[in-house]
């Protein structure tokens, strides 16, 4: 059975924040297919929006979400990217939806300032987290219940995982491939992507 990887997208999302994880999980699926006979892909990767209306990432890239937050398949892993998140933080239905995804039987992970959206749910309270170096002080100030770490690429707290700025989301996603399948597949994926994986936070 395929594992469903949903990536939330919104206006002013940072391109590499969502495209990096998308590339990791789809590349991992291709690498897996080369060595394992299976009728279904290892990971089924898709984008999610508040609605199915097109959104525009930073610098204008247009994205047509595959699903909305109200009609998507059950998720095994949700990736919440960052970017300019001010408008998303004010959308109660988005925060409520992210909160609903935070449960022991699935992984919810953030990239960069996506940590602010996870923090707004209250699910990160008391946990170690990280975000883009430029936003560390703001995250600490806005959410004092968090234990915000600096100088790390990602922080794994079990069902909730956060990563630092932009390219760190690729490191984190490779870590998630290792968690969800195997270290060997994560290494093959990084090699295929010609990416120097920071294997430890």
TrEMBL record:
InterPro entries, per database record: Class_I_gatase-like, DJ-1/PfpI, INH-QAR
UniProt KW keywords: Lyase
Single annotated GO MF: lyase activity
Enzyme Commission identifier(s): 4.2.1.-
Keyword Lyase attributed: yes
Ranges for domain DJ-1/PfpI: 6-178
Matches recorded under Gene3D superfamilies: 3.40.50.880
The organism's place on the tree of life at top rank: Bacteria
Protein name listed in UniProt: DJ-1/PfpI family protein
Organism: Pseudomonas boreofloridensis
